[in-house]
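Methods — Computational structure assignment.
A single polypeptide chain was analysed. Its primary sequence is given first, followed by the predicted tertiary structure written as structure tokens.
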Amino acid sequence: MTPFPRKAVFIDRDGTINHQVGYCGDPARIVLIDNAARAIARINEMGLLAVVVTNQSAVARGLITEAQVRRVNSEVALKVAQEAGARIDAFYYCPHHPTEGNVAEFTRQCDCRKPHGGMLRKAAKEFDIALEESFMVGDADIDHQAAKDAHPELVTFSLPSTYNHGLGDVQVASLWQAVEQISQIMAVR
């Protein structure tokens, strides 16, 4: 336990840090979105944890393996480090799908699949994160819903996409813009 709870920026992966490429099990297909690595470096500079939370139902569907998810996550972390000297503190992923799976052990209801807040709560427990003082950035309404399920005071930032229908607390154009606004919020806290 840390003497004081930490604060975090929870970040969706696909469509927020890297370009959306469908069910991705190939690290070679990872291309970062402009300024995403720089935004994560800014999160690091502010002393906030950068925690990725991502649904990966392709595992339940039998399209990719958990090992492939971990390799893709490693590639995202490597590219972020190479591009901006930035650090992602942790990755959490949900391999489940409640109905559309082909792999029995992953085809089930769970608390970790967004829009549920299980991944955020798990990170909060493992890293002693104060959810009520933390942030979520993603490109889908389920990112906002997961954050609010984890803690209703968690502030959410939503990026443009076909999965964003305006539920986020703040609508922004990019991860970089979200982090700039988080910086302003932190300055007055």
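Note: Strands lie at 8-11, 49-55, 90-94, 135-138, 155-158, 170-171.
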